[in-house]
Amino acid sequence: MGEVRRAEVISVGTELLLGQITDTNATYICQRMAECGIPVYFRQTVGDNFERVQEAFRLAWSRAELIVFTGGLGPTEDDLTKEAVAAVLGADLVEDPGALAHLEQFFARRGRSMTANQRRQALIPRGALPIPNRWGTAPGVFWEADGRVVVMVPGVPREMRGMVDEFVLPELRRRGWMGQEVIRSRVLRTVGIGEGQLEELIRDLIHTTNPTVAPLAHVGEVHLRITARGFPEEVSRLLDEAEARLRQRLGDAVYGVDDETLDGVVGRLLRDSGLRVAVAESCTGGLVGERLTSVPGSSAYFLGGVVAYGNEAKVKLLGVPQSLLEEFGAVSAEVAEAMARGAREAFGADVGIAVTGIAGPSGGTEAKPVGRVYLALADAQSSRTVRADFGEEPGREGVRRLASQAALNLLRRYLLERGG
Questions:
Q1: Residue 4, pLDDT score
Q2: Topology of 182-257 in CATH?
Q3: pTM confidence score
Q4: Out of 3.20.20.30, 3.20.20.80, 3.40.980.10, 3.30.70.270, which CATH number does the structure's domain 7-174 have?
């Protein structure tokens, strides 16, 4: 069984179809399978219905060698995964002594009696292996039948992850179900460049097959997922080469890799530079300061901030001249620059950052529409301002988020130039 097998993930739960929770379980399972060289070809989501779970299973059985269920293993009447799968394969459910003992100990330690429904969780299809549950009550199931493997794990994320990592993957490896090849991804995060412009710069690289490059749009960012398949050493080389080509095309628009955040990258640059920063915010209402202080150790570089929403606050707290407000208005490059200088001086910082704009949905004019934002950065020697037009389409919260993103990127570029 050394060859690579196709996998399918089936998520069970009506709450998933109602949109009440996000299916992070399937994402995690797919990631772990890819890391082990097992490609997931299909994903299904099905509600807590006996016939529909059976239908989903029959479809998966027709096209995949490894089928992983998540959800539907608990003690309630709508937990039907084991029963539905066993019925399709014509297998009895039998009580597993080890699973029953675990349940009895679980409830005894809590001074509670076990109900008949809770005892149902100890039922396992005949011939299958129970997967121990150190994090809860419902055991999982590992079942090899007719050249296929069926895995059932609970829907509780902590229980699912523990079973996948500690039992399912080792058991698949032991039985020779894992290929020697692996599938690995790396994500480059970009900021300050639109998706369309980015695709123009790397169009030829997007059409490669190994590795593949896929743009993923996020609020204020575009991520590039590089995915390569092959033997581990070959995959590492392919990922490194693709990253180098993308960085050459995109320059400092690339701010981070994988789980790095813009907040964390700016924080690291500030620590390395030894500079201290203060902020003055209007339309973002403190969001820039919140993001700067979300990073552990931010007290080393963040001195404080002022949310100067009204003009009076801009004058009294930041020293913005009344004449500038009267001549140019609060949403202007001139006022943004004065706010940045005022924040720097008020806190004795090396650098001041300011944001002022119209978040909407009202307040815009033909001259200054909703979504227009001015940003400024000031140090002891000079200042710079940037105008951004985000439009009204992102909505109020979207404009605020995009403005905070632009402010952090302005600071990031300044720190990179200074460091260079």
A1: 55
A2: Alpha-Beta Plaits (3.30.70)
A3: 0.76
A4: 3.40.980.10
